[in-house]
Structures
1.
Amino acid sequence: MLQLSDSQLATMWSQGDSKAFNRLLELYKDKIYRLAYRMLRNKSDSEDVVQETFLRAYQHSHRFDATKNFSSWIFSIGKNVAIDFLRKKRTSYL
């Protein structure tokens, strides 16, 4: 695949290009993992956050605005998923 910007890849993905989604996954999975690990301090939960982040992004790809920054959008999803994990753990301890 040519050297495309994240926004171009996201636009292609929202139009059904699975190769574009795979490229975005490769570009961001480690970054999302590191974000989650900083928040959760748990390898397994951090891996789950990565999966859930990309699942939510896939389900809501139509909400991505190509005029915006893809990395901000995906990191926002990742942060919110990690917060959900923290909330779930906190309530399970009570």
2.
Amino acid sequence: MGRIGLAWERIEWALERIGWACERIAWACERIGLAWGRIAWALKRIGWAWKRIE
């Protein structure tokens, strides 16, 4: 059981690390998405302003 136990602990540790990495990636993607949303909103505002000028 000793070796199997150690191997299992390593697998659990690796899975936990992968879980944390996925959470961080998801958080980063959410932040990028929010930034893109703001850029799109700004471009729409510029478009409306441009139409008013014309």
3.
Amino acid sequence: MNRATVAIDEFCQTGSGSTPPREHSGEYYGGSIPWVKSGELRDGVLTSTEEFVTDEGVRSARLKLVPAGSILVAMYGATVGRTALLGMPATTNQAICHIRPDPSRADARYVWHALQEKLPELLQKRVGGAQPNINQETIKSTRIRLPSLSEQRRTADMLDKADAIRRKRKEAIALTDGLLRATFLNMFGDPVKNPKGWEVRRLEDLVELIDYGVTASAIAEPAGPKFLRITDIQDNHVDWKSVPYCECDEATAARAMLRPGDIVFARTGATTGKSFWISECPDKAVFASYLIRVRPGPRLLPAFLAEFFQSEAYWSQIRSMAEGAAQPGVNASKLGGLLVPVPPMARQRELALISETILGVKRRIEAAIAEADILFDSLVHRAFNGVLSL
């Protein structure tokens, strides 16, 4: 088996995009040409974008239309290292490197999977200060195995099938979340309209506490409690095994110790208002300072409050609180002023029972996803390290 490697720039064309000036938004934006931002890369096939630009926007920013089948890599920002396979012709912003393999030498799907396998290596080569980035030269010099086209296609087909299993299970997770929200609306009505006439109170009158987390640095060694950060909450799930630790004194740890039933919120940045219900956690776990913790009082069950925090009634209040700020954010005081409906406890208990059943199904699906991830990672490692024969 040929284990020789080839640099990306030896068989691919690469480049990056730009951003048309926002001060001409009426002229440059709102057209029909897809414009991809780095935050939209989700390690899948990209078939839609949040924004579109006009022909004039393309000319003004000297944008290039990247053909379908190209590979996109986020070079900096919150999604640095994320990739996508472009499912349509599109333009991109400057934070994305686009890669176009020579079809006579390489299968684009194979190269895409190979770059995902190289992600740890790419991230180790990040440069810069507060927000390290991957530059184009690093991507262009990355070397991958390049067997015959027929073997590349067989490898890509196999990995596509394994990846499809993971994605279908993740879609099932989204369906369980949707079922829980539909159940909430059916039982309590839309909180925006409050058709059942439930009593409405300020959140601060209904909870035991609203507080901030710990200011500390994350460490890999188990020298203290687990340290939950915003970035550890992905797709409404926390993998506690991968959550790092932190060092803090006993008094601080005792104050910020999480327990089942707590709900944490992102208080700043692009994820402002995003919440997560701690239905289970390690015995010793604290939360980071960029999160706010709410502990429901006797008149609210966590299951009810957690679902309210997914509703439009909640999000409209959060958007109103964050308006006008250069950096979106909420604080504990603002959060305490949220208006929350208070249904009878019997109805909340009914929702909690249904919620526990649905969450049980969700946990089983998450376990299946973990198994599929292990299988996929093993196949990827074997395929691109010359161990797997196809």
